[in-house]
Amino acid sequence: QVQLVESGGGLVQAGGSLRLSCTASGRTFNSYAMGWFRQVPGKEREFVAAMSWNGRDTYYADFVKGRFTISRDHAKNTVYLQMNSLKPEDTAVYLCAAAFFPFASITPAQAMDVQSYSYWGQGTQVTVSS
Predict the structure, then answer these.
(1) Which of 81, 61, 63, 85 is nearest to 9 (CA)?
(2) Residues 38 and 18: beta-carbon distance below 8 Å
(3) pLDDT of amino acid 31
(4) Is 62 helix (H, G, I), strand (E, B) or coil?
(5) CA 51, CA 70: separation in Å to the nearest integer?
C-alpha cells in the first residue's frame, strides 16, 4: 500500500511559478514510476508529466514542455513538479500518482495512461489568475 500526499498548490498570477510536492509513504518508493495529472470539473483527468523509478525516463504533455519539470528525491520519498510561466489555463487540481514498474523503464503510452497508476493522492488546487 502506498499513500500519496500532495502539497504546494495555491493562487498565483499568470507568469508566476509554483512547486508541487508529493510525498509517498512506505519503503517501496523506488519500485514506482511517478506521474502528475490534472483535472478540472467536468473534464477527464489529464496527463501532465511522469518519471520512471530511476529518473531516466521523463515524459511531458506538449502543453507543459519547457515550462514544467518533474523530479524525484528518493531519500525523501518525494516527487516534485516545478511549474514556471504559469497560464490561466493551467488552473486545475493537480494529482500525483504511482505506477508499479519496479526497476523498469516506462513507455510514453504507459506514462500517459491513467490505468497504469495504482495509487493516487487527494490533489492540490492550483489557480492561476490573469
Answers:
(1) 81
(2) no
(3) 86
(4) helix
(5) 7
Residue in the structure block whose three cell numbers are 531519500: 75
Identify the three-state secondary structure at position 64. Answer: helix
The secondary structure element, H or E, covering residue 128 is strand 124-129
Cell of 66: 519547457
DSSP 6-42: EE--EEEETT--EEEEEEE-SS-GGGEEEEEEEE-TT
Instruction: Report residue 10 as a C-alpha cell.
Output: 495555491
| Cα of 71 vs its chain's centroid, Å | 9
Nearest Cα neighbor of 92 from 71, 119, 113, 61 is 61
pLDDT tens, residue by residue, 51-98: 999 999 999 999 999 999 999 999 999 999 999 999 999 999 999 999
Q: What is the pLDDT of residues 55-65, one digit of tens each?
A: 999 999 999 99
Q: Please provide the DSSP assignment of 72-83 as one string.
A: EEGGGTEEEEEE
